[in-house]
Amino acid sequence: xxxxxxxxxxxxxxxxxxxxxxxSDFYAGGDETESIATIHHALDCGVTFLDTADMYxxxxxxxxxxxxxxxxxxxxxxxxxFGNVRAPDGAxxxxxxxxxxxxxxxxxxxxxxxxxxxxLYYQHRVDPKTPIEETVGAMGELVRxxxxxxxxxxxxxxxxxxxxxxxxxxxALQTEYSLWSREPEQEILAACRxxxxxxxxxxxxxxxxxxxxxxxxxxxxxxxYRRQTPRFQGENFDKNLxxxxxxxxxxxxKGCTPAQLALAWVLAQGxxxxxxxxxxxxxxxxxxxxxxxxxxSAEELRRxxxxxxxxxxAGTRYVEQHMKALNL
Length: 328
Known about the structure:
- There is one protein chain.
- It is built from eleven helices and eleven strands.
- The strands form three sheets. The protein has a seven-stranded parallel β-sheet.
- By secondary structure, the chain is an alpha/beta fold.
């Protein structure tokens, strides 16, 4: 398995991670037996960087991963997150970065995961009510206590990242990045490289859109949350199909699947980038893994990028309420 380092002084991890959110929440069709088999298969293949969060399934995803890695903890580089607060029924209650909450959330995650240490602990969203120095200061205490090894932020603005790095070393910043979400190219990637912070793109396959498996919104199950997101709705969906046509054309040219082409493009944006495509099925995991074998020339990368320029996707990434929590 190819390896990449998270940041200038961070840990070495598999060049591809595994996003586990969909195994327990948001995407329909979950099967815990197949999800655990997928995690075990990933570890067998050398993909050891697992990503979860306490909000996924309101704790159920961490519990699932804990069961999956119980006998294989030493093989895993385990990342989880705190900060997005949900009620037991799943209702979103807001963002919390207060030091007391940081400590309590970490202890709860450790218990659900069944581990003594979290390898990478992210603040899932920045809490605008709590100075980042206070939140990261509390996270740093967890490092000193041996509960956490490395710290990360998710969807934080460059200025916030700089302040966080001044309070404690930050190993990774996680933000959505793909051929249809290229906003990090504006400032975020440059800030990460300036500060020596690794970059972890989530949804590198456009929440599955860039795989080509959805040709209309009707292809999504009724209880799939993507039905509620702007890019998967109405005219936006139809306009985005034109972008998918371009990805599929390049994939045919390379003799690979659209998913592999889209993921290979993200991987090629820098050796400091470690994408975490999510899946809950072994067959899609294997397809994603094939992206590591695809080499794109500078000319091919330019052509692909030019055909799907930044801002080309129709619709915002999230609904308006959740867009307000990004890049703070």
